[in-house]
Specification:
2 domains; binds zinc ion; 171 residues; two-stranded antiparallel sheet; alpha+beta; elongated
Amino acid sequence: MHGRDFIALAVIVIATIVGVRFARLKGWLKSAPRCQACGRSEPSTTLRFFKNTGMIIMFSWETQGGTLCRSCGLDLFLRMTGHTVVFGWWGMISFFVNWAFLANNLGNAVWALTLPGQAAVATGALDGHREYALNLIAAKKDHADIVYVLRQQTGASAEAIEAWLKTLRRQ
Ligand SMILES: [Zn+2]
């Protein structure tokens, strides 16, 4: 592959991540509402990773996955892939199988990256309440009360709301 091909590939991967994440935030693409691993109410999707150990002639592999959020998915990717990158090559069959496992793991990691993290979810929910917040500010409502009602309605953290209100006031 030429350097140009790598750049084209990187652009396609990044465009996929940005585009699919946007579709998830907008609700055009449905995500599972809860992560099986950490139990948090975050956008989640089905992910599967392989771990491979080469042993001259044989190889042994295991797979783990489930409905996972972005951070649990990426954690699992690192755990499974780190081992595979080091121990996966050392076998006659394993050498070839390892490419398929790594390709699967990389593909699933890219898919995990399409999930909005907690911060993006909070910002998305807050942006839906933009007019509402602007009206409260225009009506000179107490700052702490504005933060309180936005917390109730969006589930975003107080810090996320403070930061968002700052950008709103600057406009
Ligand atoms: Zn999780």
